[in-house]
Amino acid sequence: QSGNLLFFSLFPRSIIDSLSLQSNTMDIFDASLNLEETHFNEGFSVGYNDGLISGKDEGLQVGLLHGFEIGEELGFYRGCIDVWNSAIRVDLACFSSRVKKTTKQMDELVRNYPILDPENESVTEIMKALRLKFRAVCATLNVKLEYGGYPKASDAQESEF
């Protein structure tokens, strides 16, 4: 530190003051030169944080909607299985052994659906198999029954009574 004082004592005071003024001036110019980068970084940071919040909210809404739709479809198949099983209990000969077997397989698929584990990779395979078996039973029974999902507001306006 004493070396610095000795070094600066070799120069006149006016030169030292002008060097100090130049460094302050450079700081001002540096700030204005970096203004675009500073605003970009601030904007990125704010946008990223806002995106995290809105992304979580949107993800929650999409997840709830998708979960509801899957639950609704599973409920539809459960209702069909229950009706067919009730008919079988009333009259054992009302359906072929093939329909009874497929209905039992559908029942197993619905029971084994991993409701509490939505990230299970078998979910899509189970739903595909369930839809396929449902179509097979309907075709065998010669019934035009189809799961169309919950009616949307636009569907209600188009239908007339």
Write a structural description:
With 161 residues, this protein is mainly α. Helices cover 78% and strands 0% of the residues. It has a domain of 76 residues. It contains six helices and no strands. The model has no long low-confidence stretch (mean pLDDT 79).
What is the helix tally?
6
Overall morphology: rod-shaped
Q: How much beta, percentage-wise?
A: under 5%
Structural class: mainly alpha
Report, as a whole number of angstroms, the end-to-end distance.
Answer: 95 Å
Largest sheet: none
Which ranges are low-confidence, i.e. pLDDT below 50, for 5 or more consecutive residues?
none
Oligomer designation: single chain
**Whole-number mean pLDDT:** 79
Total strands: the figure is 0
H/E element order? HHHHHH
What is the radius of gyration computed over CA atoms, rounded to a whole number of angstroms? 36 Å
Helical percentage: over 70%
Helix-strand blueprint:
Layout: H1 2-9, H2 13-33, H3 35-90, H4 97-111, H5 123-141, H6 153-158
Helix pairs in contact: 3-4, 4-5
Pfam families: Yae1_N (PF09811)
InterPro entries: Essential_protein_Yae1_N, LTO1_adapter
Domain Essential protein Yae1 N-terminal: 43-81
Task: Give a quick precis of the structure.
78% of the residues lie in helices and 0% in strands. The chain is built from 6 helices and no strands. Helix 3 (35-90) runs antiparallel to helix 4 (97-111) and helix 4 (97-111) runs antiparallel to helix 5 (123-141).
